[in-house]
Amino acid sequence: MPNPYHIVVCGSIVPNPLQTLEPLETPQGPALKNEMMLPAVLDPWAGHALYEAANLVKQVPGSKLWLVSMAPKAKLQQVMMAIAQKVGFELVAVDGPSSGFTDAGAVAGELAKAISGIAGLDRSRLMVFGGWESASRGSGAVMQMLGEILGITEQFQGVDSLFPTDGDIFEIKERVEGGQYQVSQCAGLPILVGWATGNLPEPKNNPQIGMVNMRTVMPALQKASVSQVKTASDVFKSVELPKQKRETRIEKNLPPEAIADEIIAWLNQ
C-alpha cells in the first residue's frame, strides 16, 4: 500500500460559460460587465483536477486533500455551496480577483504563499494539482510558475491519467500533438500535474459530504487572507460581439472540377 499523499488542488471560479461576457473599463482597471452579478462555477479544468485528486485520496488511506482558491469571498462562498457536496476537501481561501485580467506570475505567487501556509503539509508527500488551462486566465502559465516558486521540478501538463504503482512510481499520460499521448514514469514526490479532462465524470451531489465540508468551508472563508494582486493595466479601445457572416452563391451546372478549384483557392487565401 502506498504511503499517504498530501494533494493540493489549485482552482478558482469563473463566470458560467453560457453567459455573454463583455469587457469594459473601470476606475480599477479592465473588468467584465456586471461581473459580480454573473453566475459563477468552479473552473472546469480545476474541476477535473479536484475530482481526480479526490479519487486518488480515496484509494490511499490517510491521504489529505486541500482546495486552494483565490476569488472574491462572496462569489467563492456561492460556488462552494455546490462543490462541497461533490467530494471531501479542506478549503484554503484567498480573497482576491478571479478574472482573466490578472498577471499569471502574481497569481502564482499568491497561491504559493497560501500553500506554504497550510498547517501539517508534508512537502515530501506533496502533489500539486490544477488545470492545464483556465476558463478565465487561459494563459496555461500559472501552474508552471507555481511549481517553480515551490521548487517542484517534476511537472506534467495536459495530463489525462495518472496511475500510482509500487514505490511511489507514477505512470502519467500527457497530451501531445496529433491526438497522441506521451507516457512518462515519475519516481518520487513532490510533483505538479496540470490536468486536461482526466477520465472521471463529475461526482453526484452528496448532502452528507456537503455537511462535513461546510464545517470547515465557512471558517476558511472568514479567515481568508487578502490578496495583493491587482488587475493588469490593459486598455480596451473597442469591444464588440463577433458578427455572423454568411455568403451564399447559387450556381447551376457548375462542373465538379470548377467547384474543387474554387474551394482550393478559398483555402489558400
What can you tell me about this protein's structure?
With 269 residues, the chain is an alpha/beta fold. It has a single domain, classed as Rossmann fold (3-Layer(aba) Sandwich). 29% of the residues lie in helices and 27% in strands. Strands 11-10-9-12-8-1-6-7-13 form a nine-stranded mixed β-sheet, sandwiched between helices. It is globular, with a radius of gyration of 22 Å. The N and C termini lie far apart (60 Å).
Please give a handful of descriptors for the protein shown.
single chain, 269 residues, alpha/beta, Rossmann fold, 9-stranded mixed beta sheet, two-stranded antiparallel sheet
SSE topology:
Blueprint (H helix, E strand, L loop, with lengths): L5 E5 L2 E3 L7 E4 L2 E4 L7 E3 L1 H16 L4 E8 L1 H11 L6 E6 L8 H13 L9 E6 L10 H9 L4 E11 L3 E8 L3 E8 L3 E5 L11 H16 L2 E2 L29 H12 L2
Parallel strand pairs: 1-6, 1-8, 6-7, 7-13, 8-12, 9-12
Antiparallel strand pairs: 2-5, 3-4, 9-10, 10-11
Helix pairs in contact: 2-5, 3-4
Strand order, largest beta sheet: 11-10-9-12-8-1-6-7-13
Give the strand content. 25-35%
CATH topology: Rossmann fold
Helix content range of the residues, please?
25-40%
Put the structure in a nutshell:
The protein has 269 residues and is α/β, with parallel strands linked by helices. Helix content is 29%, strand content 27%. The chain has a single domain (6-226), classed as 3-Layer(aba) Sandwich (Rossmann fold), CATH 3.40.50.620.
